[in-house]
Amino acid sequence: MAAAAAAAVGGQPSPQSEPPQPELGRDKAATAAHLKEALSRPDNRAGAEELQALLERVLSAERPLARAEGGGEEAAAAAAGGGSGGASGGGPGAAEEEALEWCKCLLAGGGGYEEFCAAVRAYDPAALCGLVWTANFVAYRCRTCGISPCMSLCAECFHQGDHTGHDFNMFRSQAGGACDCGDSNVMRESGFCKRHQIKSSSNIPCVPKDLLMMSEFVLPRFIFCLIQYLREGYNEPAVDVPSEKDFHKVLQLLGPQISFLEDLTKMGGAMRSVLTQVLTNQQNYKDLSSGLGENACAKKSHEKYLIALKGSGLAFPEDKLTCGMQDQAAGTSSLAVSGFAGATGTSGQVDSSDEEDQDGSQGVGKRKRVKLSSSVKDQSIMDVLKHKSFLEELLFWTIKYEFPQKMVTFLLNMLPDQDYKIAFTKTFVQHYAFIMKTLKKSHESDTMSNRIVHISVQLFSNEELARQVTEECQLLDIMVTVLLYMMESCLIKSELQDEENSLHVVVNCGEALLKNNTYWPLVSDFINILSHQSVAKKFLEDHGLLVTWMNFVSFFQGMNLNKRELNEHVEFESQTYYAAFAAELEACAQPMWGLLSHCKIRETQEYTRNVVRYCLEALQDWFDAINFVDEPAPNQVTFHLPLHRYYAMFLSKAVKCQELDLDSILPDQEMLMKLMIHPLQIQASLSEIHSNMWVRNGLQIKGQAMTYVQSHFCNSMIDPDIYLLQVCASRLDPDYFISSVFERFKVVDLLTMASQHQNTILDSEHERSMLEGALTFLVILLSLRLHLGMTDDEILRAEMVAQLCMNDRTHSSLLDLIPENPNPKSGIIPGSYSFESVLSAVADFKAPVFEPGGSMQQGMYTPKAEVWDREFDPVMVILRTVYRRDVQSAMDRYTAFLKQSGKFPGNPWPPYKKRTPLHPSYKGLMRLLHCKTLHIVLFTLLYKILMDHQNLSEHVLCMVLYLIELGLENSPEEEPDEEEPVGGQERCHDSWFPGSNLVSNMRHFINYVRVRVPETAPEVKREPPASTSSDSFASTQNSGTAQVFSLVAERRKKFQEIINRHSGEANQVVRPKTSNKWSAPGSTPQLTTAILEIKESILSLLIKLHHKLSGKQNSYYPPWLDDLEILIQPEIPKYCHGDGMTAVERILLKAALQSRLNKRIIEEICKKVTPPVPPKKASSAEKKTLDKEERRQKARERQQKLLAEFASRQKSFMETAMDVDSPETDIAMEIVTPEQQVSEAVYDCVICGQSGPSSEERPTGLVVLLQASSVLGQCRNSTEPKKLPTTEEEQIYPWDTCAAVHDVRLSLLQRFFKDSSCLQAVSIGWEGGVYVQTCGHTLHIDCHKSYMESLRNDQVLQGFSVEKGEFTCPLCRQFANSVLPCYPGNNVENSLWQCHSNKSMQELIKEVEELQEQLGIFPVSISSETNLSKEMESVMKDIKSTTQRKYTDYSKTPGSPDNDFLFMYSVARTNLELELIHRGGNLCSGGASTAGKRSCLNQLFHVLAMHMRLYSIDSAYNPWKKLTQLMQDINSQLSNEEQPEVPVLYRDVSSLLLIQILTMPQPLHKEHFTCIVKVLFTLLYTQALAALSVKCSEEERLAWKDLGTLKKNTCNAEKSWEVLLSLVISELSKGKLYLEGETEELGMVNPIAWSPDNIERYLQQFCLPFLRITSLLQHHLFGGDLPSCQEEEEFTVLASCLGLLPSFSQTAHPFTSAACLDWSVPAFDIIPQWCFEVTSFSERHAEQVKVLLIQESKWDLPHLLQLPENYNTIFQYYHRKTCSVCTKVPKDPAVCLVCGTFVCLKGLCCKQQSYCECVLHSQNCGAGTGIFLLINASVIIIIRGHRFCLWGSVYLDAHGEEDRDLRRGKPLYICKERYKVLEQQWVSHTFDHINKRWGPHYNGL
Predict the structure, then answer these.
(1) What burial class does residue 1437 get, using C-beta atoms within 10 Å of its C-beta: 0-12 exposed, 13-18 middle, 19+ buried?
(2) Is the pTM of this model over 0.85?
């Protein structure tokens, strides 16, 4: 290879004189050593030249890369390579590899590269971690240790540090990041990990010079070579589509080189400093890359570089190439925008060079885009780049190639080097404009954005660095200018206000730049640097920058304008509002919050003044640009007023923190009037939107209204708007303000005394809600104190209370809902101390609970009682609700609280709450409550409500009273109590009210009012009286004419006054109103004037209202007449519960308290016996409403009745259908209980509702669910729980599971014995057994079939598949998949077993044998196929198909009948064993079956028995004979060659029991059952003795043998275990059973001394499992309850229950288990026979004899694996673990909670035959049921057959919440209760019933 390379380079002229090339002949190592030695000499010029030449050769041997690229460079490359095409030896990659090999060799200077790496690492002063990661990496953030909020740590550093008790979380990196451990600029040193705590510069030795000498020579060439590649690979994209394929191709080829550099960075500090030097050295760069040498190749690459620069719209300054920003459409001069003059500080003229702009995007079409003028300074920022070092050009290409991941990682890996960090940051800033241009053009802007931020976060989070770059490189200028230019490309003319002449431009939210959030990397950098105080100060001091920034913000002012659709529904709903809200929040609000966080103290007043000044200037420009005077254009609204909000927030800050005088920073009145218009317009529009007036604009307009108040936006949007309105209201004329409000809300026409009116601008159906909106807005405006004097903690508390009152909340949703300062650096950290302390003060924690339905609750916070009592604030709730229903929800909860605590029984009104005091600067706000306009409105509304005018609601009254009460609370100083003051400065011109104080105006009587009404109105008929006390409604100016002035005219007049007062020249501004928008004459019915007699005052109206509300005459009686105390010491609580009447009483009391006159007038009004409320003029309309009311009332009553009836019906159904503790009602529904002496069982069909017995022709069936189950197989024989492995050492081996043990046993038996006999000696079904469960409901089988048909045709998507026979029970909706036919006749053969026959044991044995012989003589003759037998067959098929083939086929001859036989009795065994487990593993609790009537074992037995009897057991082999008869020819058996049968002692007794019973004709007689049990018990007992004898030591055996022989002749010898044990021992010793391995056995057996007690206990334990199964079986077959007992007496109780114990007469001497034996054949005869089978087997296979003896079974109950306390333990081990199948780290790792297997969820890598790994595992491990923990989500997923569901999580955080997908990343802890529930559902097979949300998985999990 080397030779080839040499040949390739041979012809190429080298810059130096050509030295001889002997070294290429030698091997690389030698060459390298030689060169190193040459370079170490003092005079190393020769060595250097030699090395240069070598590198020149080696590195240009890589030229084939360019050739592989293809294209026109072919010739050039060939020329450069000296024309030799064969150079590339092994394809394009080989040459590069060769070059890399050379480099490694040279660096190592002849040594081994690995050793070299190790040597360099030794000199690493590892003070910083600096580990760089890419997206999706799991990292940590600790807020307690972080100085910058962007701080992050890699998992290793985090776990090595001590963060106990800190506020940290784990997160998945989105853009990538780097570990900050060891960097004290970003985090506190206390949080450093052990490795990075030591400041280790001192003890690291100095790097020896010669170690890195070669690197210093080699690396510059290597990096230059890389740059040449990048230059050559880049082709300026021809069209606008960058050829990404080319990019990728080049980058792929460069992969190894960049990885090599990356490896170098990882060698530590020593190597990094060499690299830094190489990258930043300007001389090196000049020498190598200027392209001046005669090397053609270098020249070419330099040319390409220049082309690339020009193509980017950049230029070398020398090139004198001016690439100004040009207008897009060539030939049209840009629009001059007056507002932008001086925008960027130096020149204001418009650039008129009209060449096509390179990055003008073509997509914008014909819309004129407006561009800013470019100044000289900007020119330099935007368009000039000069590269002076490798680093700068590398970054340039990194950007050009759109930030390839590997390059980014390399550049970041270098950051721990301080010099590099500074150089790189400066380079980055220098390229900032270029980054923006590339980003705008990029097609994958998302990926690119992430990579940019990945870099910039590392640079700008460091305050020191940010400050330095700001000072030295004008960072702020660059950023602001770049942002301005970026937005420039998508400006359009604003259509707000004056569409034709508007000069304002706004961003177009439909452009990709905004829609895709392309701007966010730049904005996020800007926010990041503004978080540093030193940088922010620079910004706030720089007037030029502030002007530019306000210009930028004004681009967003008024964007995304909505115009109300009046005719058609809009055909295309634009979704641009997302972009608009995001842009305002990110680009305007967040920088604003950043700046605000530095204006917290008095010393920063100057900054605020600056911002406010330029903000007002920008606003003034904006008003001019849109030609705004005083009327907003109708039917349009924009939610985006960032300039207003900047202004408002800085005002608020100034007053709250900086003690500035508010008036000093407020503009004149005219400006205030303009300022209030648009925010007020938004408030009115909100009300319009909620009144459905914008419905033709589609749903998106509702979306905007919601987003505007939503928690992430509200404190940057609605809060500043309302605050600004409060400021305006406090400074403007109150009458003007109030009238403006009602005019904006379009309800002016409604506010008339007349009962009918004409509203020209509002449909009547919207009037009510708009009026409510207007009043609610006034209440919010007057009661909200967020910016008017509340402290931060009070605000937090109010927000929290409002959220909690709407609904109980989890901790995380509260954190999310409480508007937090959106700028993360503002210092209000979520989860900060104050948050927790306020939360614990206002809320109680409700721990997560489990409802029986299985829906799992999270831990919730709910308001404390005293919060409802004193702090519930409806105003705050209304302000913060996104959905109107939440207000109702809060009120409902409040009502419920009052009822429950007995504070108020009725329907309460929203409570009135005293407010925190106003800050003195805003005192003027309260003047609104004391202005005549408002009083007129209140008076009118009270009157209208009293007179029942239409369109008024309780809500209106509530708000009116609220406003009156607010006015009384905030009245000016006490008024003097003389009689009415005679008009002083009042000028008495007012015909409505004398003054402006509410207290005195309340008592002012108004006699007559002149109103304008439609001619049709009832008022017209009346004769007007002669004298009028009052004139026109709402005119506060006196006017003698009959013309009615409106609020509108009133407002105009005030406006005119204010303008004239303020400026003489402003008159030209007020243009005459040409279009009369309000009422075009002639368009409405003629209005005529009528005069109404009123004769009321506000006080009298209130008292009458009280009567009206209470429905009684004279209901109000002044309380102080009885109790004068009330006036002296009024105890008006701060917070009042009650309804409207209470509110009226409260107001009257307050009015009386504030003025004696009021008190007297109230008393007078009450004394006049108030006439009844004027009788209604029963106009037809009112009649209608009356009737309507009555009709409604009646309908309501009817409905109540119906509901009550329905409820009682439902209750009775529930009692019958469910287990609602009422056992007596069960019988009707369920399978009949045994006590009833009925001849036949009666069943109810839940489909047709008929009752009747099940018959052959029309059988009834039980609704059942069949499922395969491996729960039994998961029992283990150790009591200590198995843990989920969380380290490599812990592994789980399934050897000790029940399933494994049984498997091994069966295969062993099959080795030595006859197959058919083996298959009757054991049970299967430990894995994949079929479990049958029922809900207990029955149906006719034909009804079921038609039900299934209807389900099949029903196209509704069900959660189950009808094809597979699945359905839900028609009555209780429980999931089911089959129907089990009920056997005709009585369930329980009472008659047969009640009579105790006195047959002897021998007779019974004989009968049993005979019954077994009558094969298949079934009461139902099979020959005649009946419906019943067909159904039984079909259900048997279902049972078989429920489980997989592998769980049913165990015989050596496939398909042999023995298989079916085994399978069938095993089904019975599985169901019995599972029931036993559900009872806790024993029968001590007794009672009926846990499921009571839910058990279907009886029916199941009938089905199984019918099928078992179809198989005959050859009588010769019938085990019954072996058990009950002595065999004659023992020896003849052995002579046969075939395999013997399984010895009886090796057979499983429970299996024998089931075989015996299921092969008998049904129904079985109880006596036969008992007989079988007795016989089998003798066998079992013998097995126990045999097992025991093996456990004893040789000596003990001899001792027992002798002892038994002595007792052999006593009377009860057969019932004494000593005798029997001795017999067994002596019989078994005849074989080789005891000989083998005696010695080693002893070691294993615990040396227990076998005392008689121990032996007795052992024998009982051995027999118990059989007794339990048998008792259960007896219970199901014959009824009768199971007795309950203590654990120690379980044996005796069960034995007597089964009839094994004759009676409890022998209590005298201690009970022994042997007493239960009842030998059918004398023990001394039968035992030897049984033992003989074993001993004869031992002759041939001595080693297996012992293993096969049945051992005592001690199975623990099945459990899921035990999980660690802390979720992190699991996560850290598994989320990086590789899969054992595909050896990759899975994208979605999961672990099985049953057996601990690690699987890939959804991983295609591990797919087998279209099954993904989880589904496959669920079949292998759980026969179709899988329980998996998803590692990356902390959630548990259940797979059941073909369906799956998300179960929830068993890990909760400290606040009792799940963290699905680990989004919050807080530490999670095991919730033991939840895990128990999961385990319970697994063991009881109830996943299908309890979890509701199932979906098909299509094998894709």
Answers:
(1) exposed
(2) no
